[in-house]
Amino acid sequence: MPIYKADLHIHTLFSPCGDLEMSPFGIVDEACKKGLDIIGITDHNTTRQAPLIQELGHERGLYVLCGAEVTTKEEAHCLAFMPSAEFLETFQQYLDKHLPDIPNSEDEFGYQVCVDREEQIVFQEERLLISALDQSIEQVEQMVHSLGGIFIPAHINRPRYSIISQLGFVPLELNVEALELSKHVSIADFKAANKYLNNYSFIQSSDAHFLKDIGTVVTMLKMHHRSFDGIRSALRNITKDCR
């Protein structure tokens, strides 16, 4: 069965913390140069830039998952991916509804712009995208799965903005496809220190905000061919450190 190289946590220039070089073309070009087969686009609390990157990726033979890095009410970060354009739009409406009306300060946090193929600005988000939604992690997970999506708590080992830092543990009743660790942590060591999570699948991703960081750590996914359902199944069946 083929094995595909995936980096499922990449920000674009739309994220206020994303470098302005993280344009749709720049991301796809860098991912292809790094030999990636699958990438996930995960801007903070927005999916709007992802469809163009998916389109550009398709032209280059790169499979692109469209989603977002959602900040829950508890200020825990979670990756959410949608299976189709229709469900992506529904999820974007959900994000828009539950993002608080806190204005962005470009001087303090950075620009929040969506661009087209020519890198011309087509949309600017006025609300601060790194704010927490008014939805709990359970509510976000339920929404994601009601739309047939993939749900992955992000960088759970970190001392800030992770499910463990905010809740103290991973609730066993939470329905997840995998758990993500940051790239500087050994999956084996983390499992040894958190034995109650031994039956979970783990991934590692770059959490890239700069082009040079794309693909610096990857997860190897085994499936017959690249598809949303194939990726979901591969994620649920990771059994070892695949860096």
Overall description:
By secondary structure, the protein is α/β, with parallel strands linked by helices. It has one domain (3-236): Alpha-Beta Barrel (TIM Barrel), CATH 3.20.20.140. The protein has 8 helices and 10 strands. The strands form 3 sheets. It has a 6-stranded mixed sheet, with helices on both faces. It has a two-stranded antiparallel sheet with strand order 5-6. It is globular, with a radius of gyration of 17 Å.
Task: Provide a brief overview of the structure.
With 243 residues, the chain is an alpha/beta fold. The chain has helices spanning 24-33, 50-60, 85-98, 106-109, 137-146, 163-167, 187-193, 228-236, and strands spanning 3-10, 38-44, 63-71, 77-82, 113-115, 121-124, 150-153, 179-181, 202-204, 219-222. 29% of the residues lie in helices and 21% in strands.
